[in-house]
Design goal:
Elements (H helix, E strand, L loop, with lengths): L2 E6 L3 H13 L1 H6 L2 E7 L3 E3 L18 E3 H4 L5 E4 L2 E5 L4 E4 L4 E3 L2 E4 L4 E2 L7 H4 L6 H13 L3 E7 L9 H15 L6 E6 L9 H13 L2 E4 L4 E5 L4 E4 L4 E3 L2 E5 L2 E2 L2 H5 L8 E2 L13 E3 L4 E2 L6 H19 L12 E6 L5 E6 L12 H18 L4
Parallel strand pairs: 1-2, 1-9, 2-5, 9-20, 11-12, 11-17, 12-13, 19-21
Antiparallel strand pairs: 3-4, 6-7, 7-8, 10-18, 14-15, 15-16, 22-23
Flavin-adenine dinucleotide (FAD) binds next to helix 1, strand 2 and helix 9.
Length: about 375
């Protein structure tokens, strides 16, 4: 009997896993004993970290796109379609045209979505670089912005890449300085809790840099509404900030079908944080942003988790005990300006300790972004 593995989501986690399985299960795939299908709702694989550089005119959106069928091994069946429903009892998926597909092993790698509608006025008043279209629109605004109040408000937590809001204000500070405009531009950063980042070690490292660079900070700022006409953002705590340019990290959610399938709340799948198995159904894994493991929603996490799920699935298919587990490993380069960066690496047991910023780490981040396309193919 053929073992059918279906991966939903062809972003970082899903693509790395598909290529991992093509390599690991090559004999079984060749013999027709295993089928691996990767379902994605668009023909391109999108590498989101490129969007951080788009508003500063340093990258084009096309730099973050590759055709999925060129990125994924030929042994994997790539289906461009949207999954609309999961029946974990019948082990069946339904697609938007009403057709269905059965699976023996399901992996959800459906990522995060943005939900700006949660905050009145946000869609009309705020810009973002957390979507391709947002990054392009922000580029137009930022290039024309030569004076006034720039507010970066982190609204949604958890959100993708927890370091990216810090990176944006550090880069903006440097970018305006290099262009002789910094004295005319006020930069304010808001964060929902009492510090500037969810992780206390990163917050402790980042705050003195913000002070040194004259980046204003408003903590305990949970955005409640945006008034685009007045150019004002208000928090639940009663603070109001005037802005000329508002950049936000909008509220995030997972995908609806997760909740409808009873796999977790707000579109995120509840998993065992070590095995990545869904808590509410058998033979279902989740990895990357959609899995609630308590670590950041980051591509590096999705990548490491794909290796663990690949090993576990291969063991299971071969009738052996699955022993691989995820230890929380996360790594991240953090831009601290236009040509300097820091680096953090941590896991469930060991907290982050940001490296001193250097140009070498900045070049390492750019090199990583270039080599990503080899990583996604499973070659690095
Ligand atoms: C501006 C920015 C900068 C970032 N920088 C970094 C960084 O420096 N380092 C880092 O590690 N991470 C970074 N990230 C985060 C990283 O991009 C994400 O964490 C990563 O993409 C998550 O991978 P994933 O596989 O879980 O989801 P994704 O890569 O988002 O892929 C999910 C895929 O599933 C598809 N999908 C969803 N629902 C369905 C459905 N029902 N049917 C079919 N297909 C579906 C989606 O269209 C998408 O293709 C950044 C993110 C942003 C926005």
């Amino acid at each position: 009997m053929t073992d059918r593995v279906v991966i939903v989501g062809g972003g970082t986690g899903g693509s790395v896993l598909a290529n991992d399985l093509a390599d690991r299960l090559e004999p079984e795939l060749d013999a027709g004993d295993v089928e691996v299908t990767l379902v994605n709702d668009g023909p391109d694989h999108v590498y989101k970290p490129v969007w951080l550089y788009v508003p500063f005119g340093q990258r084009e959106p096309a730099d973050g796109r590759r055709r999925l069928d060129e990125l994924v091994d030929d042994a994997v069946d790539v289906r461009i379609d949207r999954v609309t429903d999961i029946d974990t009892e019948a082990k069946r998926l339904r697609f938007r045209d009403g057709s269905s597909m059965e699976y023996d092993h399901l992996v959800l790698a459906t990522g995060s979505t943005l939900d700006p509608e949660q905050i009145p006025g946000l869609a009309a008043g705020g810009h973002d670089y957390y979507s391709e279209s947002g990054a392009v629109a922000l580029r137009e605004e930022l290039l024309a912005f030569t004076e006034g109040e720039l507010v970066l408000s982190v609204i949604g937590t958890p959100h993708m890449c927890p370091a990216a809001p810090l990176e944006f204000v550090f880069m903006a500070d440097d970018w305006f300085r290099q262009r002789g405009l910094r004295e005319d531009v006020e930069i304010t950063y808001t964060y929902p809790i009492q510090r500037v980042h969810g992780n206390p070690h990163i917050a402790e490292w980042a705050k003195p840099i913000m002070d040194e660079r004259d980046i204003n900070v408003e903590t305990f700022f949970n955005a409640e509404s945006v008034d685009p006409d007045a150019g004002r953002i208000a928090s639940m705590e009663g603070t109001e900030l005037d802005y000329d340019l508002l950049v936000t990290i909008p509220p995030h959610a997972g995908v609806d079908l997760v909740e409808e399938a009873g796999l977790g709340d707000d579109g995120w799948v509840d998993v065992d944080k070590h095995t990545l198995e869904a808590e509410a159904a058998d033979d279902v894994y989740a990895l990357g942003d959609v899995a609630t493991t308590g670590v950041p929603k980051a591509g590096s996490v999705a990548h490491y988790q794909a290796g663990v799920v690949g090993q576990r699935l291969a063991s299971d298919i071969r009738g052996r005990p699955a022993t691989a587990t995820y230890d929380g490993k996360t790594l991240c380069f953090i831009e601290t300006g236009m040509d300097a960066a820091s680096f953090v690496e941590f896991d469930y047991e060991n907290p982050p300790s940001p490296a001193p910023p250097s140009q070498k780490l900045h070049w390492s981040k750019l090199a990583y972004n270039e080599s990503y396309w080899l990583t996604a193919r499973g070659l690095l």
